[in-house]
Design brief:
By secondary structure, the chain is of the alpha/beta class. The chain contains twelve helices and five strands. The longest helix has about 55 residues, at about 295-350. The two termini are about 50 Å apart. The model is unreliable at about 345-350 (pLDDT under 50).
Length: about 350
Amino acid sequence: MTGNTQPGAIRHVLTHLLTPLLMCVGMGLGYLGAFGDPAPHHLPVAVVGRAPAQLVMAQTLQDKAGEALDVRTVPSRLDAVRLLEDRQVFGAYVAGGAQPELLVASAGSDTNASAVEKVFTPVAARQGAPLKVTDVVPPAPHDPTGQGLFFLLVAVSIGSYASVAVIGGAGAVLPMRIRALLAVGMSLAVSAVGALFAGPVFHIVDHGLPGVWGLVWVYSAGILLVGTGLHTFLKRWTTLGVMVLFVMLNFTSSGGIFRPELQNGFFGALHAFWNGAGFIEGARDLVYFGSRGLGGNVLTLVVWLAVGALAVAAAALTERRRRVVEEAVAVTAVEAEEETEEEMEEAVAV
């Protein structure tokens, strides 16, 4: 290699090394920002009973906790269970009886249940009795922490966004409609693998597997279509782009490890409409909570799928316009060359 080509080659390598450097920065900001310092923020809990003693306990707990908790009272234990099943609260303290009892639903969030237990253990200690914890909605037997759905999300996401690079790169010469069909077909394959992992292989999902398969497919198809459409515009930056969308912002806001009640406002806000949260909460709705709230989470995934379809349509239109411009430029160049040749022939004739 000559001395003149070495600086150009080095600049080329350094330019491409910028992508992994930005990935490092993004992953650090995303994961440490979302998971680094979990603390309750308006975590909803309940105290069972409307007698003066329970009302005073609830108000005292709220005053001490400040914005960390949202404390309410409910008339009965049955009402508390219903609120837990609807995920309107994440812990309910029953003070009456020989032993204080804390009701939780760890299938909705194991970390939220642990946080609630830390809140009420000192309360029970002041009453001079150990705290009894009752899990009214436990996770599947082979998924004791309830985080198996999150790791399923990770596997499906990697299979989906990695396929984007292949379809966009190796398939760049193909028409957009073919690339879109490849994306849909790959999402079916990825969702089948995900369903096998969730059910027969690791038993993360002990019932409702066909519904979970459907959620995985819509989630994967959304990622593949969005990424396939973006490749037309981002080119070599597509990998970084899809990692920002579907790893850095997606995994951290999904609620699979920490729900928004234990995160800062940014990731808590993303949880309301990001596709990973739609999948995690939708799968929890389907498997553990009798499909309560399932419609809203399915809508989230469908909206992302529609965004993917729009991205593909926009990419197809852009590529068509580029081809028209390129053909026009080529025609102009040919015409200019022909005119030049005619002028030369005239000059020779003269």
